[in-house]
Design goal:
Blueprint lengths: L1 H18 L8 H26 L3 H35 L9 H26 L5 H23 L1
Helix pairs in contact: 1-2, 1-3, 2-3, 2-5, 3-4, 3-5, 4-5
């Protein structure tokens, strides 16, 4: 599990650096997309390396879970960074700025978790009689976490 954690540090650093660029800066979205793509590529390389040693369905699911856990860690980290920034911004807000952003970010995160649970559990149930169901569910969680990471960059 250690190699996957190392890739998180690299990916999160890149995501954080692009996330702190001022909103008006040109190229911000492109830089964020490139950082996210690089993070995903790093995780995919680690996953492929893990899969070379996989001999059972459990082994394959374990490799996929490491990839998912890395993205979930990045999502949680990015969420905490964005929430802290929103709370700091609240202290210095101008009259025309909303004071609801921290609360809305918290609500958004909670609803995203509920959606992910419902969506991926539904896929798990759809494949109830097969050994692929765990892998399908883990992959669902991974894909939705990558999407959430991209969304959090916009906050």
């Amino acid at each position: 599990m250690k190699p996957m954690k190392g890739s998180i540090a690299v990916g999160i650093t890149a995501l954080a650096l692009t996330g702190n660029i001022a909103h008006a800066d040109r190229g911000r979205e492109e830089a964020q997309q490139m950082a996210l793509h690089h993070f995903q590529a790093t995780l995919e390389n680690r996953y492929q390396h893990c899969m070379k040693a996989a001999k059972t369905t459990w082994d394959s699911d374990h490799c996929l879970a490491l990839k998912r856990d890395s993205v979930n860690d990045a999502v949680e980290w990015m969420y905490q960074v964005k929430l802290a920034q929103a709370q700091i911004d609240l202290k210095y807000k101008r009259p025309a700025e909303s004071d609801k952003v921290p609360e809305m970010l918290q609500q958004s995160q909670a609803l995203w978790k509920q959606y992910t649970d419902a969506e991926c559990q539904g896929l798990f149930e759809q494949y109830i009689s097969g050994t692929i169901r765990t892998g399908i569910s883990i992959d669902c969680q991974y894909r939705l976490a990558v999407q959430r990471l991209a969304v959090l960059q916009q906050w």
